[in-house]
Amino acid sequence: MGSPANTGSIYVIATTPEGTARALAEADQRAARESRVVLLVPVPVRSGPESASLLDEYTAVARRVGVDAAAYACVCHHPKDMLPLFAAGEATIVVGGSRGGGTFPNDEEQLANTLAACGHQVVFAEITAASARAEGPGHARPGEPRPRPST
Q1: 9-135: CATH class
Q2: Which long-range contacts (CB under 8 A, 24 or more apart) does 26-32 make?
Q3: Distance in angstroms (rounded) separating the CA atoms of residues 9 and 91
Q4: Domain coordinates of the chain in residue numbers?
Q5: pTM higher than the cut 0.90
């Protein structure tokens, strides 16, 4: 499987299901007719066999949001490590998540800041209360256990 060229692509880095849904919706709005949305799902190096389902899970998120995205699972230490594999150069990268609201940025904001510091064009797609309700529960990041609904 080859990697997509950056021409005409908008990259979404999977974070949480809700953050990824918000980022996919933002990327879809920004995509021109000739652009395509590429969903990059970071798979932590330390992940075991459960990591195989991550790509399926985030592809399902894209379908639920109604975005036709080419999805790729990438084994890496940090999500920023995937970008050279995809020649993301000048392409837009969308990271979704909620704002930390405190003195320090949360993981999603930190990822967006790190990518911007590396010279990438980054859009942070903030989860609003309305978008969080629309997407339902599921706050874990790729490679982490999913929260179970309370019974």
Answers
A1: alpha beta
A2: 26/94, 26/96, 26/123, 26/125, 27/67, 27/69, 27/92, 27/94, 27/125, 28/65, 28/66, 28/67, 30/92, 30/94, 30/123, 32/8
A3: 6
A4: 9-135
A5: no
| pLDDT at residue number 134 | 53
pLDDT tens digits, 106-131: 889 988 988 888 888 899 999 987 65
Residue entry with tokens 């970071």: 42
Which residues of the chain have a pLDDT value below 50? Answer: 1-6, 135-151
The two three-digit tokens of residue 131, written as one number:
């978008």
